[in-house]
Amino acid sequence: MKIEPTQLEKAVLLKVSGRMDAENAHEFEDACDQWINQGARHLIAELDGLQYVSSMGLRSFLAVAQKLQSNSGSLILCGLQGLPRQVFEMTRLIGVFPVYESAQQAIAKL
Amino acid sequence: MALDFTRLTMPASLDSLQPLTAFVLAGADRVGLAQSERDKLELVLEELLVNVARYAYQPDSGDVEVAYAADGTGELVVEISDNGRAFNILEAPAPDLSAGLVDRPIGGLGLLLVRSLAGSVAYRREQDRNRVSFRFPGPQSPGT
After folding, report:
1. Which residue from A97, B24, B54, B63 has the fewest beta carbons nearer than 10 Å?
2. d(Cα A75, Cα A55) in Å, to the nearest integer?
3. Domains along chain A?
4. Which residues pair with A5 in a beta bridge?
5. CA–CA distance, A88 with B113 (Å, rounded to integer)
6. Where do the structural domains in chain B lie, given as residue ranges?
7. What is the pLDDT of residues A30-77, one digit of tens each?
8. With an 8 Å Cβ cutoff, are A83 and B43 in contact?
């Protein structure tokens, strides 16, 4: 898994690509925690390059979103496709996170 | 006709996840499983093997066996077994999928994925072993 952060005016964009599984899901949570500790309120995860996510990955997304929400922030997902999108749909997490087709749309809504 | 299973036993730990998964995926390639089903199979294997690694023997340790067979119709039959504490994955309580973000339980999603993605998921406890079996390709999910 590769995580490429870009700091924007109102949010931090994290481009996540590759596989998020039991072995590395904590890396995503750690990366988000760093930005949260630096004061970021909104994180946008750009996921069009995410090829695989297991329940351990879902757990990380949920944990990060819960932390941000307790600080009136949010974890915004965009670009979900393929099996990761199905995984979010099957677990009905698609309705729990703000989800957009593209990072541009997500940024425009902030 | 009885199925001819190919088997591999390893310690039930996260370190075994990758080699056990690669072992079954080699079987998937042998039956010519489509890439989209192969990805789902990989996910189901991770969910089940992580479960065994984390809960079956805790706080002790033990082994997990993975077995697969081609059933002659292009389907792959997979069985995962351990002799840890009895755990029927089909009777595990379903997570509350209607809860909002704050109340959303973090556990239970893995087994939900297993039951959604794999075909003919079955459990039996036999001679002090948990045996979970399933088939691929799984059921066709809507929208795919």
Report:
1. B54
2. 17
3. 2-109 (3.30.750.24)
4. A14
5. 10
6. 6-136
7. 999 999 999 999 999 999 999 999 999 999 999 999 999 998 999 999
8. yes
Question: How large is the ipTM?
Answer: 0.90
Task: Give the model confidence (pLDDT) of B19-63 as tens digits.
Answer: 999 999 999 999 999 999 999 999 999 999 999 999 999 999 999
Contacts of A54 in chain B (CB under 8 A): 43, 46-47, 50, 110, 113
Question: What pLDDT is attached to residue B141?
Answer: 54
Whose tokens are 């370190």? That residue is B15
What is residue B1's predicted lDDT score, i.e. its pLDDT? 65
**How far are the Cα atoms of A63, B53, B66, B125 from residue B60, in angstroms, in the given order?**
28, 10, 20, 20
* Residue A90 amino acid letter: M
Which pTM does this prediction carry? 0.93
Question: Which CATH number applies to B6-136?
Answer: 3.30.565.10
CA nearest B68: which of B36, B35, B44?
Answer: B44
Q: Least CB-CB distance to B97: which of A21, A56, A91?
A: A91
Does A63 contact B106 at a Cβ distance shorter than 8 Å? yes
Closest approach of chain B CAs to the CA of A54, in angstroms? 6
